[in-house]
Amino acid sequence: MLEMKGIRKAFGPVKVLHGVDLEVRAGEVHALLGENGAGKSTMMKILCGIVHADEGTIVIDGNERSFEHYDEAIQAGVGIVFQEFSLIPYLTAVENIFLAREIKTGGFLARKAMRKRAREVLDKLGVDVPLNVPVADLSVAEQQFVEIAKALSLDARILVLDEPTATLTPSETEHLFKVMRDLRSQGVAIVFISHHLEEIYEIGDRITVLRDGEYVGTRDVGSISTDELVEMMVGRRIENNFPPKPPAAPNAEVVIDAAQIQLRKNGPVSTFQLRRGEILGFAGLVGSGRTETALSILGAYPAASVKVEINGTPGAPANPSEALARGIGLLPESRKDQGLITSFSIMQNVSINNYGKYRTLKFFLDLSEERKHTTKVIKDVQVKAPGPDVPVDTLSGGNQQKVVIARWLNHHTPILIFDEPTRGIDVGAKSEIYHLMRQLTEEGYSIIMISSELPEVMGLSDRVCVFRSGAIVATIEGDEITSEDIMKHATTGKLRYVA
């Protein structure tokens, strides 16, 4: 159904695609894999007319096509779910799904018809998303389903799904896979991009791998092992994805002592401690209160009650600025929306919390001092970029995460909260982030890691706090951590209340 031949693309002096080929058959799920920066998303944007190739051809059903913009691709039966949401936050789910394709009767919007069609598509996905509230008020997972529904409503014959499961729970992912199987049986050609290799083996038929903008190969899913696939993607074997854990240190200094965190009035209560030099995992289902609990310590979430000591000083920070002054840094769940100013350079993002110490006079910055400090910390965390003046939005996801980490190291925040630190990051970059986190704890940093990936929680955490219904229901020690225990506590753990 689809052939892309000899696709080349450069942005200025940076060559992104070097004559890449892709062939997708009708009625198959074709996985497109590669590390961040391999060119996968650019390839798909070229298919959809969002980016124009410098060279190469696109053939659909035997006919060569060239799309000037996305509307032309839609008319040709091509739909895409973008890795970065393309929703307008102050419009409702219905308005986003039918944006620029509104159903009209006699020149007026047919709101009931659009609402009915939107509900049908979301029912097909097996989810109940509020239709009449701004999508800004929806959870990240609900926004993801609106994005998917938007593409499904096109009745596309070629459907591109770029990291569609990044924010979904296992049960929500299974709903999506059921829809993908139904579409496959109807002859739809699906291009599926994911960094979760287990998903590729569950839903994929064939795999095409890109590396550094070049075509590496295409294989049937059943003919290649995980190790072989990783080696195709990164050009080397990754023997130890998770660094070894240090011996347990129960007598280590307590840097956060949370005696009571109650997210809502009359709700359940959490209690935990974070020790110096450890990675404390926060696990649980989406919506279980993991992120809210961490943000309440920063003064960024209005919890009903927060009784906490930080480095022996009682009282929670009133706001994130005070938390920063007390040595706490946050790598947020959405790095592009909340963690970075993407139009700024690497150096500007790293030093933005530290301009006070670079002043030469009252209103001037010592740029050489700024460059010296930021260049060192960028090198320490191994950001891969031509130099510190490169805009952050040109970096891969893994390198963007490293820039956020570099900012907090530059600010000397010994307590770090990492919320979904490897979301949307390829397997090679994940390993680098894991080793960097362990290196930081060896240097005396303390990390709270919030993650929806159970292998990540088990492989990296020294201890794990399991959440259910807004509170911690169990804390599991390192060698005792199993996925079965985490899920048991996450679904049936006993909540604790105080008078």
From TrEMBL:
SUPFAM superfamilies tied to this protein: P-loop containing nucleoside triphosphate hydrolases (SSF52540)
Molecular function per GO: ATP binding
Record Pfam families: ABC_tran
Name under which the protein is recorded: Sugar ABC transporter ATP-binding protein
Entry annotated with the keyword ATP-binding: yes
PANTHER family per record: CARBOHYDRATE TRANSPORT ATP-BINDING PROTEIN MG119-RELATED, D-ALLOSE IMPORT ATP-BINDING PROTEIN ALSA-RELATED
Domain (ABC transporter): residue spans on this chain: 2-237, 250-494
Alphabetic keyword roster: ATP-binding, Cell membrane, Membrane, Nucleotide-binding, Repeat, Sugar transport, Translocase, Transport
Gene3D superfamilies attached to this UniProt entry: P-loop containing nucleotide triphosphate hydrolases
